[in-house]
């Protein structure tokens, strides 16, 4: 699996936007960029995924660099419930396995 | 949305006994299920991949005789921790991949195992 690099932790104020970066310089042309998050004492939940174009859904936006070597997960207005570990994962479309890295622990300050 | 359940949510067992954890996809069929283990403050570690009706594929370093996985139907997989020891205490999480889908995978809420 191609490797991703994320900051260990980040802080943000409540009700402000949060930009969570992910570097994946060895990404291949068939790798999809997935984001999952894990709230305390829960299983991970899917956030968003994309291939080349930026993506939006009700939870977040995903901005993908033109060379695809990095991406940014954007939470438009963070709430206390968004405090979690966010994982950026590369996954080939036909590959079954999701391999988790260390992720970014996001702290939201009230 | 798709829901994956796990039972029990937490279990305490004595050293040397076996414990079974169930993982169910409640509103979809899952040809493939995955089992992960997570120690405190660490990331999830994939233990094994199970396909319905066939033997599980274990990741390197995971003892298949200790962690027995059965995936007898499209909605149920079980993980049995045999002869549990305190070092097996962990958070066990399953996930299920939607049948015939290339990316939709959903995670259960996890099972907290404590071996005394």
Précis, in short:
The complex is a heterodimer of chains A (110) and B (116). With 110 residues, chain A is an all-beta fold. Chain A has strands at 9-13, 18-23, 31-38, 45-50, 55-56, 61-64, 70-75, 84-92, 104-109.
Radius of gyration of chain A: 13 Å
Count the E strands of chain A: 9
Stretches of chain A where pLDDT is under 50 for at least 5 consecutive residues are none
Q: What is the SS-derived class of chain A?
A: mainly beta
Shape of chain A: globular
Our estimate of the beta-strand percent of chain B is: over 45%
Structural category of chain B is mainly beta
Mean pLDDT across every amino acid position of chain B: 93
Evaluate the radius of gyration of chain B.
Answer: 13 Å
Task: Please provide the ordered H/E string of secondary-structure elements of chain B.
Answer: EEEEEEEEEEE
Q: How many helices of chain A does DSSP assign? A: 0
Written overview of the protein:
- The complex is a heterodimer of chains A (110) and B (116).
- Chain A is mainly beta.
- Chain A is built from no helices and nine strands.
- Chain A has strands spanning 9-13, 18-23, 31-38, 45-50, 55-56, 61-64, 70-75, 84-92, 104-109.
- In chain A, strands 1-9-8-3-4 form a five-stranded mixed sheet, with no helix packed on it. In chain A, strands 2-7-6-5 form a four-stranded antiparallel sheet, with no helix packed on it.
- Chain A is globular and about 40 Å long.
- The N and C termini of chain A lie far apart (37 Å).
- The model of chain A has no long low-confidence stretch (mean pLDDT 93).
- By secondary structure, chain B is an all-beta fold.
- Chain B is globular.
- The mean pLDDT of chain B is 93.
- Chain A binds chain B through residues 32, 34, 36, 38, 41-46, 49, 85, 87, 91, 93-94, 96-103, and chain B through 4, 6, 32, 34, 36, 43-46, 49, 91, 93, 95, 97, 102-110, 112.
């Amino acid at each position: 699996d191609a490797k991703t690099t994320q900051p260990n932790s980040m802080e943000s104020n409540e009700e402000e936007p949060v930009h969570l970066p992910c570097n994946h310089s060895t990404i291949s042309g068939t790798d999809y960029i997935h984001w999952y998050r894990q709230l305390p004492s829960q299983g991970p939940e899917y956030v968003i995924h994309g291939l080349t174009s930026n993506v939006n859904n009700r939870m977040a936006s995903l901005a993908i660099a033109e060379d695809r070597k990095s991406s940014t997960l954007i939470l438009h207005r963070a709430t206390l419930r968004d405090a979690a570990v966010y994982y950026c994962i590369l996954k080939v479309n036909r590959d079954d396995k999701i391999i988790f890295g260390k992720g970014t622990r996001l702290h939201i300050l009230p | 949305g798709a829901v994956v359940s796990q039972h029990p949510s937490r279990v305490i067992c004595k050293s040397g006994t076996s414990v079974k954890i169930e993982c169910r996809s409640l509103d979809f069929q899952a040809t493939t299920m995955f089992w992960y283990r997570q120690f405190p403050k660490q990331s999830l570690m994939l233990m094994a991949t199970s396909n319905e009706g066939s033997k599980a594929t274990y990741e390197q370093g995971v003892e298949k005789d200790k962690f027995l996985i059965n995936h007898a139907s499209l909605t149920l997989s079980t993980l049995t921790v045999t002869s549990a020891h305190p070092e097996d205490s962990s958070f066990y999480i399953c996930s299920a991949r939607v049948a015939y889908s290339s990316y939709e995978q959903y995670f259960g809420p996890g099972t907290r195992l404590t071996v005394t």
